Amino acid sequence: MPELPEVEVLRRSLEPRLVGRRIERVESRNVSLREPLDGPALRRALAGRRILAVRRRAKYLLIDVEGGSTLLVHLGMSGRLTLAPDETARESHEHLALRLDGGERLRLRDPRRFGLAVAVASEGLEEDPRLAGLGPEPLAADFGPQSLREAAAGRRGPVKTFLMNGAVVVGVGNIYASEALFRARVHPGRTVDRLRSAQWERLAAAVVATLRQAIAEGGTTLNDFADGAGNPGEFQVSLAVYGREGEPCPRCAATIRRLVQGGRSSFYCPRCQR
DNA sequence: CGGGCGGCCTGGAGGC
DNA sequence: TGCCTCCAGGCCGCCC
After folding, report:
1. pTM for this one?
2. Cα torsion A79, A233, A50, A101: sign
3. Which is the catalytic residue, given A245, A264, A270, A271?
4. A48: Cβ under 7 Å from strand B?
5. Per-residue pLDDT at A248 exceeds 80
């Protein structure tokens, strides 16, 4: 489901409603997501603690609590995290729920179970194996054409899969990789060793602009993305190429094409993107 | 080592 | 109505 904009929209919707609240009870099912849910460890780390902060790193949501623990949540492809009144009926595939003071419940639902929920030590979080090795945040100062070129040194793969590599830049998934390449007018199959300086400049700027606009528009809701209050996003209306095979390019009206790279669909305009 | 591919899962859409 | 195939926003591990 979510790429950086969706997780950031979710974070912003949850932060004011979670910070300062106490977790009264932790309910977890005995299931395996990307890793098995460890109920006892989650209870030890979270139960009775107040929530101190709600942060994001890459596509991970980080919920810091008292006592030195952080709940690391990843939504995978189909995860949803929602805050709802405690009495709301449990949904199917709801694997974890935190009952909060004030009568609400934070619930993680994830039918495909590609997501993750694990309690880790807040201290040294960046060295956690799940986060170590991640590249720069695209909306931070250390991301730009220079960081892209350095990451591309000695590589030869197509720029589309390069952009989706979390060691290069985090948070750019299948939708926003296609959208940023369209904005930068770079063909998704172009190999990174053949990108010129001006293209790196355009690409870095396009990644930033695309993600910022998507956040401002509440994320992309294709099927089921919603923020913590259940509100869908609007950016799907602004998608220029993703999911639009056969439709006219919004810039030049040529017919948008689809190709498969690394088993994933890429969408592009054959005239604008060379 | 980089890069490509299959695997992990369920569910929705579309064809017949 | 059913049954089948294909496809899906992510990531990991294995292989060459």
Report:
1. 0.97
2. negative
3. A264
4. no
5. yes
| Dihedral sign of CA atoms A93, A132, A140, A250 in order | negative
The Cα A24–Cα A223 span in angstroms is 32
Q: Strand B closer than 7 Å to the CB of A263?
A: yes
Would the pLDDT of A1 be above 80? no
Which carries the bigger pLDDT value, residue A88 or residue A14?
Answer: A14
Separation CA A113–CA A23 (nearest Å)? 24
CA angle A21, A25, A29 (to 5 degrees): 125
pLDDT in tens, A58-75: 999 999 999 999 999 999
User: CA-to-C1' distance for A162 and B1, Å?
Assistant: 16
Give the model's pLDDT for residue A147: 97
Range of lowest pLDDT (A42-46, A223-227, A237-241): A223-227
Q: A267 is written with which tokens?
A: 């969408």
Q: Which of A3, A6, A104, A179 is catalytic?
A: A3
Q: Tell me which nucleotides of strand B come within 7 A of a protein CB.
A: 2-12
Residues counted in chain A:
274
Question: What per-residue confidence (pLDDT) applies to A223?
Answer: 85
Q: What is the pLDDT of residues A23-42, one digit of tens each?
A: 999 999 999 999 999 999 99
If one counts every other C-beta atom within 10 angstroms of the C-beta of residue A152, the result is 18
Q: Phi, psi (5° rounding) for residue A21?
A: -80, 150
Residue A237, exposed/middle/buried by CB under 10 A (0-12, 13-18, 19+)?
A: exposed
Query: In chain A, which residues from 150 to 169 place their CB closer than 7 Å to nucleic acid strand B?
Result: 154-158, 161-162
Residue A239, phi then psi, degrees to nearest 5: -60, 125
Q: What is the mean pLDDT of chain A?
A: 96
Residues paired with residue A267 on neighbouring β-strands, in sequence order:
A258
